[in-house]
């Protein structure tokens, strides 16, 4: 049982708004919840993490419009978990809530396209426990990831998009120099959640996303020392702190 008055942020106000969302859902209620909990696309409030089970319940009931509101707000909260760990225990307290949100978010993907699809795709990744991949851009018309070579530590730019698929050293005057082509991962070699991401992109009729993911999960060659490394593994290792819900949703559920 959540003791809302004990929370150090707008816990009472959030609880009251959730009560209203359960009794009489409206656009105004969801706008107020969003204004209270989300600042610059992130949630830093204990009340937001405590609200996840109730948001999950709201997403599983009610009118379609308000189910979507519940999923979208929950997604913004969960994505913050990549960087914010003070309230991890609140999130771990109800793994079933996140598992339900993951399934609901995944089910709506085939009906979406464009930027809406990418945002929903990221939300689904977050609910599955992959908060790091939920927070990076997946726009493979023009994507750039900065990374350091795992062997010689040379700063590299990984480019995946219409301008090419390569690793390079970015020079202020000359642009990307010493380009080395990326080696895409064969789809058959992908496993668990990575295969889910690829298969879902295919099912959603988004070949640009699917193709980009094969390069993200493939290998790069360092422009300086020519060592070969997996892009996703090393990029996550350099940027991804512990993800608190990774152990909450069972692996078999994360990959379906």
Describe the structure.
The protein is α+β, with helices and mostly antiparallel strands. The protein folds into two domains: 4-93, no CATH class; 142-239, no CATH class. Helix content is 50%, strand content 15%. The protein has 13 helices and eight strands. Strands 3-4-5-6 form a four-stranded antiparallel beta sheet, covered by helices on one side. A hairpin with a 3-residue loop joins strand 5 (164-171) and strand 6 (175-181). The protein is elongated, with a radius of gyration of 20 Å. The two termini are 30 Å apart. Residues 246-256 have low confidence and may be disordered.
Distance between the termini: 30 Å
Number of strands: 8
The low-confidence runs, each spanning 5 or more residues with pLDDT under 50, are: 246-256
| Cα shape | elongated
Helical content stands at: 40-55%
> Could you spell the SSE succession in H and E letters?
HHEEHHHHHHHEEEEHHEEHH
What is the total number of structural domains? 2
Write a concise synopsis of the structure shown.
The protein is an alpha+beta fold and 256 residues long.
Any chance you could write out the topology, listing elements then pairs?
Blueprint: H1 11-23, H2 27-37, E1 38-39, E2 42-43, H3 46-50, H4 52-59, H5 64-79, H6 88-92, H7 95-108, H8 114-128, H9 131-135, E3 142-148, E4 155-161, E5 164-171, E6 175-181, H10 192-203, H11 207-216, E7 219-221, E8 228-230, H12 231-239, H13 251-254
Antiparallel strand pairs: 1-2, 3-4, 4-5, 5-6, 7-8
Helix pairs in contact: 1-2, 2-5, 4-5, 4-7, 5-8, 7-8, 10-11
Top keywords for this entry?
256 residues, four-stranded antiparallel β-sheet, two-stranded antiparallel ribbon, disordered C terminus
